[in-house]
Amino acid sequence: MLHAHYTAGSAVQAIKGLYSLQEALQEAGVKVGRNKKALCLWHSDRSPSMHVYREKVHCFACGRGGDAIDVFAAANGMETKDAVRALAARFGFQSGVPPGMQARIDRQRRRAQNERKEAQNIESAYWALCCLLHRLEESMSETLPDPEAMENDAARDAAAQIARLLTEVGAVLDGLASEKREVQRQALYIARERGLLT
Description:
Helices cover 61% and strands 5% of the residues. The protein is built from eight helices and four strands; from the N terminus they run ααββββαααααα. The protein has helices at residues 8-18, 21-27, 68-75, 80-90, 101-143, 147-150, 153-176, 181-193, and strands at residues 37-38, 50-52, 57-59, 65-66. Strand 2 and strand 3 (57-59) form a beta hairpin.
C-alpha cells in the first residue's frame, strides 16, 4: 500500500514528474517514425497507426492510448493500477520516502523535466524546419522552370543557394528524426549554429 503522503492520485502525479513518455516508449522498444507514428501497443498493428504526441499516444485504429504509465502498463501486460504500483516501487516511494531518497527523486524529477523540455525543443525545431523545407522547395520550383532566369548569374546563384539550403535542412531533419538522442542534440545544435531556426 502506498504511504499516506503518496495516495494513488499523488503517486500518479509523482510518477509523471519522474517518468516521461519518451522513456516509456524507449523501454517498450517502440520505434517512432519521422511522422511521429508507431506500431500500436494495444493491438496487432501491421502499419503504424499509433500517433505519438508530447505526453500521450493515441491509436486511431483501435482507439486506445494514454500517457507514460499506460504505455508502461501495455508494454508489460499490466493493468494501469499495477503499473502505478510498479513504477512507485521503482522510484522508491511505495512505503514512503526513505532517508536520502528525496534528493534522488528531486534529481530524477529535474532530469525528467529537462528531458521533456529538450524533447519539446527538438520537436518544435523539427516542425519549423519542415515548414522551411517546404518554402525552399516552393522557391526552387519557382526558380528552376524558367530557362531565361537561369541564364542570369544572380538567378543561378539564388538557385544554387536554395539547393544548398535544401540539402542542409534535409540533413538536419534526418538528424532530428533519429532515434538516438545524441544525434538529435547534434542536429539541433547545427540548426541553431547555422541560423536555420528563427
